[in-house]
Write the structure tokens for this entry.
Amino acid sequence: MGSPQAAETCGGRHGAEENRPREARLQQVADAVVVGKQHGGSLALGDQPIERHAGAYMFGGVALFGVCTIVFALSRNVALSLAALLVLGSGDMLSIYVRGILVQLNTPDSIRGRVSAINSMFIGGSNELGEFESGVTARWFGAAPAAVLGGVLTLAVVAGWIGMFPALRKLDRLR
């Protein structure tokens, strides 16, 4: 919940009592992705480090993100929706983890900082652009169809990149 919503809820604004259950559900939805990312990060970094098949893990994480987006969009069950978002967050974190390591390991020492800075700018920019695109698409088609379309296009991108970059898919070790 953002600061304005928290202030209205805690400040006793008229009608806030009616909105608390809805706001709590929305907060659970937002939290599910974050918890999934944290869980995915702990698996990738600690409990089960990626030792082999790094490229497959990276593409698998993105594909999992796409599939879970579709499940979330089509779900009418709160528990299933939250589970889909938990797994979505884990898949996203898995791909972020592998991509981040690949950038660091495959960049010459002399320009690593600059490449990391540019990479961060592109990631931040793509997130903002993606949010804009999602909003426009949801306005045109509705939220659920837009989310299904996003998930399907994510899977199409994964398939395209696997075809165009077979060496990346076959990448074995993160060393």
